[in-house]
Amino acid sequence: MTTPPRIVVGVDGSPASVDALRWAAEQTELTGGTLEAITSWEYPTQYGSQLMYAENVNWADLAQTTLATAITDAGSSTLTSCTQTVTQGQPAHVLVDASAGAELLVVGSRGHGGFAGLLLGSVSEYVIAHAACPVVVIRHPDPTAA
Fold it and tell me: Residue 49 — φ and ψ, nearest 5°?
């Protein structure tokens, strides 16, 4: 008996990650696979006057809310049955770890337009170089680009 292909998608709540989530859901439908949406969180590493309020933040709950909102925003019926994972850790490392045993890893990348638009974000670059499976990067257009 063969296991259905597992597709992993990283979600941070940005429009680019919602696009990636939507694309991954469509790919899951086409392949008959399973979908795992992952959001990770970290405690802030820098402290300053603007971060002092953050000591009372429940980061795990905030991450869970971010993931749930992104799933709603993506608006695909496939997402109602996807596995939702919220975990503590640096996003690029969490996604690379989750790529073990997956058929595909999907991430979003915010578009910048012009020369900057040729660049990928640090998470995208890291997972492309280190993932244990193929990676698809879904670009989100920059509405300010001309």
Answer: -60, -35
Mean pLDDT, each 10-residue run in order, the chain (146 residues)? 88 93 94 94 65 69 92 81 92 96 92 46 89 93 58
Structural domains of the chain sorted by starting position, each given as residue range(s) with its CATH number in brackets:
6-140 (3.40.50.620)
